[in-house]
Every structure is written in structure tokens, then in C-alpha cells.
């Protein structure tokens, strides 16, 4: 009934969708097997993509040829560039999407790919021959043969939903839990753990009084995520902001004795930085109020997502408390918030390619690896999809370094450190933030993806070359263009910057604090005219390159130093126990994690600088 596929992807969440298109665009014959085709690319929680650090990841996915950015741009209802008042390393795109359109667009793009076949059913196990995976087994007893398998089961593995004292099996509201896979993988020797996450109630927007809330509009000039020509938003939906109060907190506390979080019924560890409202009240008892973002779920629905009010308290308590929030006095609820516990697998059981160490050609991606978030999931899916096909072709894996991408940081952290709580990306996790910006992901990554044979990137590569050339031309123009004091001094004085005494090149003016290229253009019309031939992205990049040149150079020097360690390969078969100068902990960790390079070894907790010296001596340095 089924041909032998190159790559079988299990699950069509954010990780599964990206894995399927990545493998397909590499040329693989792909089977995407998922429990319910009507929930392809379902946003389980917030209908939003991006945000701080996550926005950078979406742009990286896009630069590597993934589809999350394109889908988001096609389905956005609001776009904002966060942190615009901070340095460019912190600028982070974020979009609210129409939840239904988002899922629909993903399905349309997947179905448009001739290399992807679909099967709707629960996969209950993998088929293993020797030490290699050779397919999957489904609930009705079918076997689908495949040379590589990517598991992206998300929150579904033995999922258990909690609302107050009620608990029932489920992978997400209204959907069955997935059974069989954890049990089989445990038998094969995998270590599984338990995590939890939660979601807020969904509200009938017709019952809210927005006049009591602050309005939050999208950007005046929204840009979007994709480096391709996706539609620009001409119309946007507003979000609103309101607050909890002491009264709301008191009402919520009346349900604490029935809370599965506090009475020990939930044992899985939740995300510390994305706490439930009851957690916030408990942990930050001195705070009188917490901010709530009232976010629309789409163009054609009145459903509202209450960001900041994630809860697994009994539904009656959620209801009474929410009705005390300004604007929510007559609120009607569509469904209560809930928490979900699910199985995950410690990602230290994976190689840098996301292939498992225990079973050849078996890959894990997404929430199954202990991460949380669509962006984290999508990026792992993309990398696993690429590497699954490279493994089938017996080619070297595609591994991004920490200095290449946030995706490199994410995977490096996961496989070397593991995680005890749902892992989400923060800018602080990346040591080379000024290099890993959202504006240059295409320059960093598109050439790498094109090199490994990712199809459909020819046009993108042309754009990359064009952007590089345009940026260099703008930088040259700025360095050569002389500006006379009379022309620029009124502007400089207006921003409190000392006036020029003689003509200087424009780049020296741009380097001053508070001076921007846009302002220079507004005050020097002849220069603005010369700049008109260049697109806004190239202008922005040239400005960042010039203003932050010193920081960028310093970070690049650190990268070069680190890369020297990254280039010292460690062989998989090194018997670390024979290296008696290594600490005991280092021997255990190195044996367990089998780092590929000295650089990777240096990031394993428990491996000290003196252990690294021992390894360098051993490797002949
Ligand atoms: P999922 O999106 O969960 O997709 C899994 C897919 O696999 C689904 O299509 C499912 O049908 C399919 N599947 C599962 N098992 C099988 C099987 N055996 N056979 C066939 N198909 C299978 N993230 C945040 O960043 N912040 C939050 O606040 C947040 N809150 C959340 C709250 C809840 C209640 C839930 C459920 C998730 C929340 N998330 C949150 C997490 C976010 O939804 C996930 O990180 C993201 O969706 C993970 O993507 P994924 O592709 O790994 O898995």
C-alpha cells in the first residue's frame, strides 16, 4: 500500500510541517503521518509568531528555506517590531496571526508539494531492524516503510489535561493523547521525562468592554518575517491591555486548594518564565496587579485569547476571577484554561543533527525534545528534516554553530546541557547576539542552505547577493559623501549634538548617538536622492554595520577564536575512561554525550578548562 519513503515525519505540528517541507525541498520522498489532518499546524496556545529571540528564529527558518515566516506573513492580523528603542541585536519581529488562516495556509503549502504524501492516523510505534529505523507502525496495524523517521509528537505523548480537580487524557483541547511510542522507546533504552504547560481561557470578544482597556496597535509600517515577496499588511487588528487586581487575586486564591499545580497532582515541570496566573500570584505575592494582553484570534471570529491568564484552576474560579478584570465584567467564556502534562525525551540523547544516538536514522524535533514554543519547534523540525534526508543519502549532517544562528544555540544547548524545564529561547542564551540579528539572517544562512542542496533558493540567493552589494555601496557612499556644516547643523543642534565646524564625511555624523540614517536623509535632500535607488533593508543593514562596527568586529574575533576549538574534531570512539587526567565527571559526561569537537566539549557542564587542556594534548595540540 505504501512505497518506501525517504523520510517519514510523525506529527504535523510546527516541527512536523517544517520537517516535511525541508526534507521535501531537499528532494526526499516524504510521508507526513498525523493524527488529524484538520489540525495541521494548529497553534495550540497563543495565535502569535515571533517575539524577543523567537522572532529572530522565524527569520532564520525563513532564510533556510522554511515556511513559518511565509505562512505568518500571509495570515497576520497585526505586526510589531519589538524593542525598536534598543540596539539592533534586540529588535524582534512579532505577529499575531489568524489562527484558522494560519493552519489553512500551512496545509495549502504542504499539499502543493508533490514530494509530500499524507496519512491520517495515530502512529503507535517505530519499526526497527538491527540498530536502524525502517518505518513506523500505525494504530490499525499498518506498516509504513521509510529510510528515516522524524518524531514530532509535541504535547501528545501520554498527554494528560488538568482543569481544577478534573483530569483526562488528551494531546490538546479536544484531541486524543498519543500512546505506544513512549513505552516502545523506553524499551529501546531511551530516557523519558514529564513536563507540563498551560493555556488561558478563550473568551467571547462580543462580551468585552474595550473602552476600559488600553489599545495596542500594530506598527505603522509593518514589515513581516519573510525575505521573499509576501503580502504587507495594509489593515491590522488592535490588541488591548488590561490588568488583574487584588480582588482578582483574592478570587483566584479561593481555588488554590483545588489547583492541580498546588495539590501535587501535576508532577511535570512547567515553564518558569511563562507561569500560570496562579503561579504568578503565589510567587510574586507583593505584586498588586499583572498585565493581561487581550488578543484577537482572527479576522472573522470574535474569539479572544487572554495572554497572561494561563490557568488550570477550576473553571468556576477562572470565570469569577476574570469577570472582576476591567472590561471583562460581562465576559462570556468559550472554554476554560487548562494545563497539560506530557512525555518528553532528554535531548542529550541526540546528536547535533537531532538524530538519536540509540537508533540510526531516527530523529526527534520539537516539544518532544523538552522545548516549548512554535518557533523552537519549527526550527528543530527544519533541521531534523534536512538531516534525515542527508542521513538517507549518507552525507555529512548539516549543523549550525552557535555563531551561525539562534537555531545553532538552541540545538547546542539542548544536546549538551539537556533541560529540566520546557526550554524556550532568550536573547541572553546567545553569546554572539550582535551577529545573530533578525535583519541579517538571510546573509548568514541562505548561502549555507543553498550549499547543502535545499531547492527553491535560487531567487533568494540572488536577493542575498543584491543585498550584500547594495549594503556595500551605501557604506561607500556614506564614507565618501561630504557634508557642509550649514546643511546639517540645525538638525544636530535640534537633537543636542554639537555642531560641525567644518565639512566632514557623512559616516562620521551617522556614528554619533541619536543620529539616524532616516534623519540624515530628511535633512540632506541631495543625499537622500542618491540613496533612493537602494531598498530599505539594505539601508538598515548598512546603518547597523557602520554604527556597530566596533561591537561586530569584537564579536567576530571571539567567534574566530572559538571556531579554532570547533575545528578540532573528537572521534566518536575515544575511550574517555582511559584518559586518567580527566576529572571523573568529565569522563562520564564525555562518554555519555560524545561531543564532535573540542568546542562542543567545552560547553558541557562538568567539563572544566583543565579537562579541555587534557583533550587538546590528547588530540596532539
Ligand atoms: P505540536 O504542535 O504539539 O504538534 C504535534 C503534532 O503531532 C500534532 O499534529 C499531533 O496531532 C501529532 N501527533 C502527536 N502524536 C502523534 C502520533 N502518535 N501519530 C500521529 N500524529 C501525532 N508554547 C509557548 O511558547 N508558550 C505557551 O504559553 C504555550 N502554551 C501551551 C499550552 C498548551 C495547552 C499547549 C498544548 C501547548 C503550549 N505551547 C506553548 C507549546 C506549543 O504549542 C508547542 O511548543 C508547539 O506547538 C510544539 O510544536 P510541535 O510541532 O513540537 O508539537
Primary descriptors:
621 residues, binds flavin-adenine dinucleotide, six-stranded antiparallel β-sheet, globular, alpha+beta, seven-stranded mixed β-sheet
> What can be said about the biggest beta sheet?
7 strands, mixed
Bound molecules: flavin-adenine dinucleotide
Distance between the termini: 56 Å
The Cα radius of gyration reads 26 Å
The helix-and-strand class reads alpha+beta
- Mean pLDDT metric: 94
DSSP strand tally: 22
Low-confidence runs of at least 5 consecutive residues: none
Q: Helix fraction?
A: 25-40%
What secondary-structure arrangement, pairings included, does this model have?
Blueprint: E1 5-10, H1 14-25, E2 30-34, E3 48-50, H2 54-63, H3 68-75, E4 76-82, E5 92-97, H4 99-111, E6 116-120, E7 123-129, E8 132-138, E9 143-151, E10 160-163, E11 166-169, H5 181-187, E12 192-199, E13 202-204, E14 214-216, E15 239-243, H6 246-253, H7 277-283, E16 291-296, E17 303-307, H8 315-322, E18 333-335, E19 338-345, E20 362-364, H9 374-392, H10 406-417, H11 441-451, H12 458-480, E21 482-483, H13 485-494, E22 504-505, H14 506-510, H15 517-523, H16 525-531, H17 536-547, H18 549-566, H19 584-593, H20 598-602, H21 609-618
Parallel strand pairs: 1-2, 1-9, 2-6, 9-20
Antiparallel strand pairs: 3-5, 4-5, 7-8, 8-9, 10-11, 10-19, 12-19, 13-17, 13-18, 14-15, 15-16, 16-17, 21-22
Descriptive overview:
This protein has 21 helices and 22 strands. The chain is of the alpha+beta class and 621 residues long. Helix 1 links the parallel strand 1 (5-10) and strand 2 (30-34). Helix 11 (441-451) packs antiparallel against helix 12 (458-480). The longest helix is centred in the C-terminal third of the chain and has 23 residues, at 458-480. It is globular, with a radius of gyration of 26 Å. The site of flavin-adenine dinucleotide (FAD) has 36 residues, from helix 1, strand 2, strand 12 and helix 9.
Amino acid at each position: 500500500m505504501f512505497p518506501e519513503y525517504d523520510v517519514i515525519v510523525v506529527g504535523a505540528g510546527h516541527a512536523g510541517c517544517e520537517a516535511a517541507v525541508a526534507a521535501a525541498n531537499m528532494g526526499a520522498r516524504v510521508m507526513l503521518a498525523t493524527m488529524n489532518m484538520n489540525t495541521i499546524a494548529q497553534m495550540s496556545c497563543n495565535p502569535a509568531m515571533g517575539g524577543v529571540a523567537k522572532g529572530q528564529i522565524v527569520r532564520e527558518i525563513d532564510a533556510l528555506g522554511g515556511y513559518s515566516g511565509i505562512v505568518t506573513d500571509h495570515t497576520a492580523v497585526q505586526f510589531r517590531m519589538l524593542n525598536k528603542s534598543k540596539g539592533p541585536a534586540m529588535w524582534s519581529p512579532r505577529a499575531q496571526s489568524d489562527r484558522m488562516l494560519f493552519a489553512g495556509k500551512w496545509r495549502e503549502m504542504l499539499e502543493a508539494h508533490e514530494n509530500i504524501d499524507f496519512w491520517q492516523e495515530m502512529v503507535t510505534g517505530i519499526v526497527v531492524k538491527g540498530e536502524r529505523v525502517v518505518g513506523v507502525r500505525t494504530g490499525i496495524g499498518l506498516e509504513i516503510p521509510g529510510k528515516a523517521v522524524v518524531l514530532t509528537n509535541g504535547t501528545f505523548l501520554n498527554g494528560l489535561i488538568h482543569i481544577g480537580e478534573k483530569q483526562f487524557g488528551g494531546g490538546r483541547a479536544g484531541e486524543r493523547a498519543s500512546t505506544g511510542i513512549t513505552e516502545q522507546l523506553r524499551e529501546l533504552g531511551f530516557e523519558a521525562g514529564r513536563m507540563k504547560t498551560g493555556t488561558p481561557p478563550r473568551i467571547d470578544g462580543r462580551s468585552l468592554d474595550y473602552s476600559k482597556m488600553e489599545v495596542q496597535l500594530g506598527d505603522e509600517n509593518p514589515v513581516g518575517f519573510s525575505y521573499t515577496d509576501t503580502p504587507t499588511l495594509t489593515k491590522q487588528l488592535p490588541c488591548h491591555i488590561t490588568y488583574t487586581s487584588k480582588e482578582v487575586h483574592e478570587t483566584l486564591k479561593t481555588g488554590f486548594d483545588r489547583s492541580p499545580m498546588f495539590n501535587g497532582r501535576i508532577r511535570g515541570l512547567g515553564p518558569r518564565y511563562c507561569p500560570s496566573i496562579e503561579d504568578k500570584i503565589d510567587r510574586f505575592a507583593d505584586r498588586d496587579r499583572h498585565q493581561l494582553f487581550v488578543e484577537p484570534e482572527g479576522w472573522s471570529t470574535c474569539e479572544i485569547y487572554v495572554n497572561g491568564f494561563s490557568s488550570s484552576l477550576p473553571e468556576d474560579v477562572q470565570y469569577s476571577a476574570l469577570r472582576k478584570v476591567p472590561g471583562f465584567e460581562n465576559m462570556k467564556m468559550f472554554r476554560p484554561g487548562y494545563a497539560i502534562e506530557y512525555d518528553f525525551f532528554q535531548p542529550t540523547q541526540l546528536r547535533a543533527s537531532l538524530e538519536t544516538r540509540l537508533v540510526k536514522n531516527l530523529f526527534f524535533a520539537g516539544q518532544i525534545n523538552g522545548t516549548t514554543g512554535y518557533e523552537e519547534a519549527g526550527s528543530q523540525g527544519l533541521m531534523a528534516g534536512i538531516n534525515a534526508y542527508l542521513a538517507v543519502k549518507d552525507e555529512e549532517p548539516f549543523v549550525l554553530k552557535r555563531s551561525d544562528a539562534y537555531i545553532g544555540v538552541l540545538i547546542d544547548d539542548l544536546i549538551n546541557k539537556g533541560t529540566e524545564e520546557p526550554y524556550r529561547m532568550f536573547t541572553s542564551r546567545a553569546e554572539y547576539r550582535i551577529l545573530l540579528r533578525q535583519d541579517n539572517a538571510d546573509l548568514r544562512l541562505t548561502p549555507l542552505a543553498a550549499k547543502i542542496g535545499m531547492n527553491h533558493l535560487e531567487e533568494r540567493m540572488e536577493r542575498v547577493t543584491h543585498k550584500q552589494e547594495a549594503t556595500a555601496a551605501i557604506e561607500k557612499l556614506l564614507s565618501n559623501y561630504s557634508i557642509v556644516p550649514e546643511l546639517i547643523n540645525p538638525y544636530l543642534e535640534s537633537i543636542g549634538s554639537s555642531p560641525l565646524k567644518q565639512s566632514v564625511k557623512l559616516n562620521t555624523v551617522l556614528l554619533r548617538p541619536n543620529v539616524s540614517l532616516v534623519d540624515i536623509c530628511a535633512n540632506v535632500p541631495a543625499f537622500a536622492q542618491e540613496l533612493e535607488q537602494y531598498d530599505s533593508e539594505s539601508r538598515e543593514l548598512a546603518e547597523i554595520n557602520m554604527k556597530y562596527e566596533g561591537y561586530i568586529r569584537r564579536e567576530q574575533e571571539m567567534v574566530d577564536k572559538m571556531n579554532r576549538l570547533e575545528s578540532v574534531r573528537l572521534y566518536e570512539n575515544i575511550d574517555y575512561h582511559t584518559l586518567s587526567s580527566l576529572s571523573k565527571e568529565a569522563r562520564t559526561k564525555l562518554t555519555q554525550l560524545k561531543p564532535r569537537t573540542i568546542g562542543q566539549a567545552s560547553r558541557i557542564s562538568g567539563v572544566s578548562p583543565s579537562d579541555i587542556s587534557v583533550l587538546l594534548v590528547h588530540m596532539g595540540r
